[in-house]
Amino acid sequence: MAMKLFSEGDEHINAECPECGRVIVIKRLQAVPSPSGFDLNPPAGVKCMCGAIHHAVMRTATGQGGMVCPHCQTRGSVTTKKVKKKSGISGGKATGAVLTLGVSMLATGLSRKQKMTEAHCSACGAKWHF
């Protein structure tokens, strides 16, 4: 059985496993566009954590697509956007701060920025990053 496509990005395709309902993030390089969605490459397919192996991702024709909010379980009310989020302390920046006696911290700070996706549910107001 094919997975259901519910969102696409420049680098990834997000699909829902029909067996367990988990979201699987698939790299664009592993997906070959087809008239009904995507064929997954390599031919071995993509394996979900539940053990199911999928060979295709189908677009939903009925408009029932959309991300499911993990908080309120509402489908289709989730919007996503790309963000850069501060996370942790960069080792290189910390080393530079020690070598320059803290002067470099004024220009760069210590935290590193990581590319993430921010999701927001308009039904319950929840916000999360992945």
Describe the protein in words.
The chain is mostly beta strands and 130 residues long. The protein has helices at 91-99, 103-108; strands at residues 3-8, 12-16, 23-27, 31-34, 37-40, 46-47, 53-54, 56-58, 78-89, 111-121, 127-129. The strands form 3 sheets. Strands 3-2-1-8-5-4 form a 6-stranded mixed sheet, with no helix packed on it. Strands 9-10-11 form a 3-stranded antiparallel sheet. A two-stranded antiparallel ribbon has the order 6-7.
SSE ordering: EEEEEEEEEHHEE
pLDDT averaged residue by residue: 78
Unreliable runs: none
Give the C-alpha Rg. 19 Å
Sequence of strands across the biggest β-sheet: 3-2-1-8-5-4
How many domain units? 2
Largest sheet: 6 strands, mixed
CA-CA gap between termini: 26 Å
Which range best describes the helical content: under 10%, 10-25%, 25-40%, 40-55%, 55-70% or over 70%? 10-25%
Per the principal axes of the C-alpha atoms, what is the gross shape?
elongated
Strand content: 35-45%
SS element count, helices: 2
What's the count of strands? 11
Structural class: mainly beta
